[in-house]
Amino acid sequence: MTLLDPTWTALLYLVAAVCFILALKGLSSPKHARRGNLVGAFGALVALVTVFLSSRLENIPWILAAMVVGSAVAAPVARRVKMTQMPQLVAMFNGVGGGAAALVALLELPHADDGWLRLAIVFTLLVGAVSFAGSAVTFGKLQELMTTRPVVFAGLPVLMGVVLLGAVGTAGFVIATGSLGLAVSLLVVGLVAGVLLVLPVGGADVPIVISLLNAFTGLAVAASGLVLGNVLLVVAGTLVGASGTILTRLMAAAMGRRVSGIMFGAFRGGSTAGSTVASERPVRSSSAEDVAILLGYAQRVIIVPGYGLAVAQGQHTAAELAQALEARGTDVEFAIHPVAGRMPGHMNVLLAEANVPYESLKEMGEVNGEFKQADVALVVGANDVVNPAAKTTPGSPIYGMPILEAGEARQVVFLKRSMRPGFAGIENDLLYEPQTTLLFGDAKESLTKVLTALKAL
Amino acid sequence: MGGIELLTITVLAVFVGFEVVSKVSSILHTPLMSGANAIHGIILVGAITVAGQATDGWVLVVALLAVVLATANLVGGFVVTDRMLEMFRGRRAAARDGEAK
User: Fold this and answer.
1) Per-domain residue ranges for chain A?
2) How many angstroms separate the CA atoms of A402 and A391, rounded?
3) How far apart are CA B69 and CA A102, in angstroms?
4) A231-271 pLDDT, tens digit each
5) Which of A68, A85, A332, B88 has its CA 20 to 30 A from that of B66?
């Protein structure tokens, strides 16, 4: 006898599904977002209580112990992780979810006597495994356990083709025979495919890969819901699949590239590998004091932060500088390019951590018209996202990428480590323009110097 | 539940998903991703179901592994999203905090 009859079970799962939708809906404004997330967590709790009460389960002590282990591993990591390391963590959580879905599908295979069910099983198995292995490689790249450059070797496209053919063939046999042994080999093939999929992707394209793998895991979970006949899994997985798909497309559009070009670009040699040689043209470099004077007497300043700022852990100093300028009556805004950082929206999180109010964080479309009225555009640790070559040089790898129009401001100040080109390895003509000033050095140190000089004004 | 009903729900969920997510502020794309991540951790429900029906030793072991992975996904996802969203504060809240310091 179970405590909940099927009707109550279905109703409670519906409550959980609605909670998940509300959680995503809450994210439409930073004001209600946190409450939305808590509603989502509540929905998950409802679903978990329901599953324990609605079916007769064996092995409950073991299950509870496994849940304690999972929480004990994840919660402290989630609590302590640095915001700069957020992309790695999200990749990892995404991967383990995909792995779990693949394992669930594998264990359901012996109970599936229907061809359609087996189709859903092989789909979950394959996509879950790709997501798991792909996320693991992404984690390795972001954590710099391995090279962040695209890994390409001769025969990679052929190997990928063979693996994909093998996957389709094995999947066909699994559907036809229901053989568990073949399903395990399909799992292995999926893992290999996941590794091969992410290896050739360059570091700058990682935001897109993370969102794509997120969508994959969502689809795997939705398919596992079809296998288990569980509506909640179907709805939750589909929601995630949709969000991952939208983000992937947004990120690709923000880089002016096609998703297929990013995933398979390296196969054709069209990846984001460029020159790292600095040019010999003259630039105007300046001292922190001069930059402080420029900023201190400006009416409007727009700060363009890039990943260089995050790497130097300079977001707090940047926020302090913005505060000091505002105290002097200067209008300060942050212009955030969609791909600034290592995952979609990463820069916003870093600046929020530094107590920058979200009203000051402006999206590209919102802020681009305002550069014309700005006295100074302060570019900190960013390069490609303000590179005019994206608009003017058709041959350039970043041609077509929407950029922040920092060059429209009356003065442009770059805080740069060196003259080395950015991640995409493309020279930035804006550096050589007459209205541009450069201040060389580590982003955080430069900001600190400018801040000190500003206070002394 | 029959296959066609499940398919109906899937298709409707696709539209709900696109509708809801396309309204998400681009400031919150990282929390969106980690929040969505947490949501797919609900595969835990599936993992628990499978583990609860396991009679073979090896099935139980694999199912429990799935439970561990899914729990890590679910719990870690919600915790990290909450931590991130806590940091997003409006001008007023930030000013209040500044005074408190």
Assistant:
1) 81-268, 288-456
2) 8
3) 11
4) 999 999 999 999 899 989 888 888 777 777 776 654 444 44
5) A85
Tell me which residue has tokens 């490609």: A384
pLDDT confidence of residue A157:
85
Question: What is the CATH number that goes with domain A288-456?
Answer: 3.40.50.1220
Q: Are A257 and A402 in contact, with CB atoms under 8 Å apart?
A: no
Which chain B residue shows the shortest CA-CA distance from A77? B76
Are A314 and A350 contacting, i.e. CB atoms less than 8 angstroms apart? no
A431-435 long-range Cβ contacts below 8 angstroms, 24+ apart: A431/A283, A432/A281, A432/A282, A432/A283, A433/A407, A434/A284, A435/A407, A435/A409, A435/A410, A435/A411
Structure tokens at A385: 């996202």
For chain B, say whether A402 makes contact (Cβ under 8 Å). no
Residue ranges of the alpha helices (H) in A354-442? 364-367, 389-392
Residues 6+ apart with CB under 8 A from A399: A256, A389, A390, A391, A393
Asked if A58 and B53 touch (Cβ cutoff 8 Å), the reply is: yes
Look up the ipTM and state it: 0.92
Contact A63, B64 (CB under 8 A): yes
Smallest Cα–Cα separation from A293: which of A86, A457, A75?
A457
Gyration radius from chain A CA atoms: 25
Name the burial class of residue A434, with classes exposed (0-12), middle (13-18) and buried (19+) by CB atoms within 10 angstroms of its CB: exposed
Answer positive or negative: Cα dihedral of B92, A337, A405, A379: positive
For residue A452, give every residue at least 6 positions away whose Cβ sits within 8 Å of its Cβ, in sequence order, or none.
Answer: A288
CB atoms within 10 A of CB A420: 12
Structure tokens at A323: 């505060």
Rounded to a whole number of angstroms, the distance from the CA of B68 to the nearest CA of chain A is 4
Provide the 3-class DSSP secondary structure of residue A171. helix
* Residue among B39, B64, B79 with most chain A CBs within 10 A, to mutate: B39
**Binding-face residues of A in 142-201 toward B, CB within 8 A:** none
Burial call A25-56: b when 16+ CB within 10 Å, e when fewer:
bbbbbbeebbebbbbbbbbbebbbebbbebbe
A91-123 core/surface letters (b: 16 or more CB in 10 A; e: else): bbbbbbbbbbbbbbbbbbbeebeeeebbbbbbb
Mind listing the pLDDT tens digit for each residue in A82-105?
A: 888 888 999 999 999 999 999 999
Between positions 19 and 58 of A, the ones with CB within 8 A of B are: 20-21, 23-25, 27-31, 33-34, 37-38, 40-41, 44, 47-48, 50-52, 55-58
Q: Strand, helix or coil at A439?
A: strand
